[in-house]
Design goal:
The chain has helices at 12-17, 42-51, 65-74, 90-99, 146-159, 176-182, 191-194, 199-211; strands spanning 24-30, 55-61, 79-83, 103-108, 126-130, 164-168, 186-188. The chain is of the alpha/beta class. The structure holds D-xylitol-5-phosphate (DX5) and zinc ion. Pathway: Carbohydrate degradation.
């Protein structure tokens, strides 16, 4: 799914219209505290909600997700991901997001292991493994995250639940196949999509590469 981080922030609606084949839109919320970058917040997500029916996948890179995350579910996002490193009470937060009717995503940075948190998997609908340090688009994919993707897929399989495994950061035509082989089944691409001559065609190319 395309990340709007690399879209035209002055023309978000036309950026969304450029990618009719996207199955979802990934929206990166950054607060300049959890990550050294600032993007957009709830009012912009509410505005995006008004101009599209697409699945909205919100990625919160913010401090205090316990306070802010439920509001994004209330705004009509289909999925809300918070960072495990920032959550004070991840189980309570996951349940609160679900209670508001959204899917729950739990995101982890490249250096955060998943094994100590395996018990949390039953509380979530998606695990988001960052494949770059969060904060910016256009960074190089970190190969060192591949074993973690494989390990996470194994832990998810053990739960017997249909938990999506999303990768985010440096995902491109070159790297997406490695992610899929390691066990990822949801793919975020920002610069690869919006930097392409034809963003919509790139989405289809990435999807074909990931699923073959
Ligand atoms: C980075 C964001 C990503 C970003 C990915 O912190 O979470 O969603 O848009 O951008 P690319 O695909 O360019 O690495
Ligand atoms: Zn993201």
């Amino acid at each position: 799914m395309p990340s709007l981080l690399s879209a035209d922030f002055a023309n978000l609606q036309s950026s969304i219209e450029q990618i009719p084949d996207a199955d979802a839109l990934h929206v990166d919320v950054m607060d300049n505290h959890f990550v050294p970058n600032l993007t957009l917040g709830l009012p912009v997500v509410e505005a995006i909600r008004k101009v599209t029916d697409k699945f909205l996948d919100i990625h919160l890179m913010i401090e205090e997700p316990d306070v802010w995350a439920p509001g994004y579910a209330e705004a009509g996002a289909e999925s809300v991901s918070f960072h495990l490193e920032a959550a004070k009470a991840p189980i309570r937060l996951a349940r609160e997001i679900r209670a508001k009717g959204a899917r729950v995503g739990m995101a982890i940075k490249p250096a955060t292991p998943i094994e100590p948190y395996a018990e949390l998997l039953v509380e979530i609908d998606m695990l988001l493994i960052m494949t770059v340090e969060p904060g910016f688009g256009g960074q190089k994919f970190l190969d060192l995250t591949l074993p973690k993707i494989t390990a996470a897929r194994e832990l998810i399989t053990k739960t017997g639940l249909d938990i999506w495994l999303q990768v985010d950061g440096g995902v491109s035509a070159e790297t997406i196949e490695r992610c899929a082989d390691a066990g990822a089944d949801a793919f975020v691409a920002g610069s690869a999509v919006f930097g392409a001559d034809d963003p919509n065609a790139m989405i289809n190319q990435l999807r074909t590469t990931a699923t073959r």
